[in-house]
Amino acid sequence: MPDEFKKRKPVMTHKRRLPKAASVAFPLGDARLNAPSAERNAAAIREVLLAFAPQTGKALEIASGTGQHVVGFAHALPGLIWQPSDIDVDRRASIDAWAAEAGLGNILAARHLDAATPGWANTAKFDLILVINLLHLISEIEARIVIQEASKTLVPNGRFLLYGPFLRSGETTSEGDAKFHTSLRAQDPAIGYKGDFDVIDWMHNAGLELIEVIEMPANNLCLIASRAP
Length: 229
Known about the structure:
This protein is an alpha/beta fold and 229 residues long. The protein has helices at residues 3-6, 36-52, 68-76, 89-102, 140-153, 175-187, 196-205, and strands spanning 26-27, 33-34, 57-62, 80-86, 111-112, 126-132, 154-167, 194-195, 208-215, 220-227.
């Protein structure tokens, strides 16, 4: 990882209080954590990556969580060097443990990154940036920062992939989504599902060009964009 990225000091000293259903992970008896949601959506996201991700270069996963995703993606796309990141020390330990068990040579050690803080983009450039199930857990201001900073650190024509639940024309798409969105807002009025067209506008404003919107299982969307030359 480039030195400029390594030298940034951790700036987030707290985590939001979220409903228990927002981020469920179970210990496996070692440093590894297992998130059932990661098992459920990994295959579908992997197929999108195989279709749209560059075959070589450097990939940054923001808010990698347990590490189950990055191991599967690194195996499917061996030409990419993967940099996982997370703000939580236990999640970073889990990422490294999953990577060690997989024995893959294209996964770097997990790094602390608070991607919702302005200014983290620097001379470290990536060919692919991946964000999974994050935007509904942070505020609109923080979500826009994530997108803006990600765009700045992408190489020209680099790919940005954003996955998660969204409001469609201002509405949730199922009873389960409505309950989850309400529980998030009850815990913190600043968070919750973001509107699909709003997020696309934020991407455009950040210099990203939308390539595709893909319907995913469980009413999720995958937005794929490219950094303008």
